[in-house]
Amino acid sequence: MDLFMALAATPTPTPSPAAGGGFDLLGTILWPLKWLVELVLVAWHWVFTAIGLPPADGITWVLAIIGLVIVVRAAMIPLFVRQIKSQRKMMEIAPELKKVQEKYKGKRDQLSREAMSRETMALYKKHGTTPVSSCLPLLVQMPVFFSLYSVLSSIKLHAELGQGGVGPLTPELTMEFYNAKLFGVASLHETLIDAFNTQNTPAIIILITLVVLMIASQFFTQLQIISKNLSPEAKTGQAYQMQRIMLFILPLGFIFSGVFFPLGVVIYWFISNLWTMGQQFLVIREMPTPGSEAAKEREERLARKGKALDASGKVIPMEKYLAEQQRLYEEAERAKAAAPKRQQPVSKQRAKKQSQKGPQQGQAGGTGGAGGTGTSGGPGAAS
Fold this sequence. Notes:
The longest helix is centred in the last third of the chain and has 35 residues, at about 350-380. The chain contains 17 helices and 4 strands. The strands form 2 sheets. The protein has a two-stranded antiparallel ribbon. A two-stranded antiparallel sheet has the order 3-4. The chain is mainly alpha-helical. It starts with a helix and ends with a helix.
């Protein structure tokens, strides 16, 4: 019932003034997403209170944040599948991209740069991918993340003013969220700086622990991609070098976020990282990049079960796989036998000698025939 009352009390979107009295463009743009974020939070909060959890307890709101992660990441699964396909194609065309770059290496004139750009774009179009496609899920998730950050960072101000959020987060629910503490010691709107200022040691420990786990989960996710799910050819491309660099740069950004983001946002980010880590593990295990270490491990697992992958990547029994390989071999042999023989290349001088040698051999053969007839005819006549 509280959920329906919150929905009924939802205000209509109005341009919100910025802190300096001006027009808050970002807040207005994010208003629909902030409304949806509040809706999902309130919905999950209602579910957990309906099963008996205390409505003002920190664990209830933490579970609601986890529910928000599940909803957002589940909605992005189609984008994630597209990202995996795009990343795989980018790795496959890495050697071709390297050839294009080497072709125009050292050429800095305008025509060469334009030609290199055209060939690169033609290569992307041919394989149906772009560098942006591999970043699409992250780009889509960022507005949601900013909306969540805006909702949680404004909790303290709204609670002090006795106001609610932009959507179903009513003043009563806002006050419950504001008073909720994880394990009874750390407020969900509290940042690491706030915890240091108030000398809240338990909150400092919780936030630092979460930041470390967040960095470790992100590092492990990227590490398992570049260590097990890349083909040997892809490890020679520029995209691989960029991924190795990002492997060590991204944690620096998480350190920054862990200091300035509220505890609720840090929890959201950590749980989202766990989702990504599990998702990547399943993809690498069941849909590895062809030629990668993970692909070889999968083939070994299938072989132990008496199975293999056919030409289309479908799992089939080993007997059927061997029959298919035999059929493909026979087809290749027949095509090889039916193909025209390759003419050996001959130099012009050698071809000229061969053409002159042919008539000379013909003349010699004719003379020999006449002499032979005369000689045999002589004795015959004498007899």
